[in-house]
Amino acid sequence: MSHPIQAAKFLEDKSNAKWHDETLWFVRDKRDTSSKGIPEWENLRELASSIKDNVLSNLDSYLVEFEKNAIKNGIKIHWAKDAEEHNQIVLSILKEKDCKAIVKSKSILTEECHLNPYLEENGVEVVDTDLGERIVQFLNQPPSHIVLPAIHLKKEHISEIFHEKLQTEKGNNDPYYLTQAARKHLREKFLAAKVAITGVNFGVAETGEFVVCTNEGNADMGVHLADTHIACMGIEKLIPKREHLGVFLRLLARSATGQSITNYNSHFRSPSEGKEIHIILLDNGRTKQLGREKFRNSLKCIRCGACMNTCPIYRRSGGYSYDSVVPGPIGSILSPGIDLKKHSSLPFASTLCGSCSDVCPVKINIHEQLYEWRQEITKAQSSINAKSIAMKIANGIFSTPYAYKLSGQIMRGSLKILPESVTYSNLNTWGKERDLPELPKQSFKDWYKNNGNE
Ligand code: SF4
């Protein structure tokens, strides 16, 4: 997997790339306006970060507390060490309920576990009920953004998909018309499903309850119509007390979409009579990440997507160029921890401008961790590659004054006479989109010799 190669593919369609960049910047702009609307914004970020620090330092005891209280509330708790175990647990519950079709609200965790293909292979129909997720599901694609799953598609494209899948009027791109068609289609699925699956935004250790945030109300619709609710939760999603929700819910909505509050913040505490709630607590590498001192902060992430919307690389390369469930800056920290070889190019997909760290509501030092990963990856890469050879040559030139002077003279002389086919060959990736700067007639040192006394 190479991010630059995937990004180059995305950039082939220049007008789409420009539109993607501008659309995400619009969301980032909304986030700025909304966050500036509350004077205590920076205090909230500080507080959220400290609460999460506390959670990560005491995760074992908070998990036990959460489990104990959830069981007291009548919820069934399951523990999964990895994605395979997680999926097996889901399937075993579905088998027990003789369920062949489920509805699922947005859950990055189930994407991480590749739950959809697993269930489908086992004869279960999975319907993603978040509108964006349903659109990409029609295309057999994963989400390209954790909050805005179909942000890479324009309304014209969605109209074509709906015409094919939902028999809507050909060429009708009206968002209201398309949304109504999706609504009608999903309603039938909601009514038929016996089991609903959701993710979890926050689990409250003190009470054993959990909160699911959606803008479309699809999680609630699925859960209230089904007899069984399966909530899939990463072990890092805990907060100690219910009162802490006031901090996180304010930060999450503003950071994600610039809203003051998410439309539906649904609290689930205990099952209604005759119904069941199951929570699957998943590790899948999180404990390992907790043990990596330089990267453990990444577990504070509340999946708001703000670091993606602000990132100049994400905006200009699209979510799929990361080939990772969580793309963008935070994904570039998490993914190498799961598969270093596959995702070794991701920490380099950053300008290290620090904008991601500046917008992160839980103050994760994202760009510093990306820089740390670069060092780890460079150390781990035993093979000699073009970059390491170039760096060795540069090191030799920069550390020897005579070689530095001579190479300057050669470059100034040769670049004037070499044809463009050589100066802009494939070796000059920098020059692909830019002109080389005009060369000075002499080096600064030579200029200073002649003019230094003036
Ligand atoms: S790292 Fe921070 S900004 Fe990025 S998704 Fe997570 S919480 Fe949001």
TrEMBL record:
InterPro entries: 4Fe4S_Fe-S-bd, 4Fe4S_Fe_S_CS, FTHF_cligase-like_sf, Helical_ferredxn, LUD_dom, LutB/LldF, LutB_C, NagB/RpiA_transferase-like. The keyword Hydrolase does not apply. Keywords: 4Fe-4S, Electron transport, Iron, Iron-sulfur, Metal-binding, Repeat, Transport. Residues 291-312 form the 4Fe-4S ferredoxin-type domain. This is 4Fe-4S ferredoxin. It comes from Belliella aquatica.
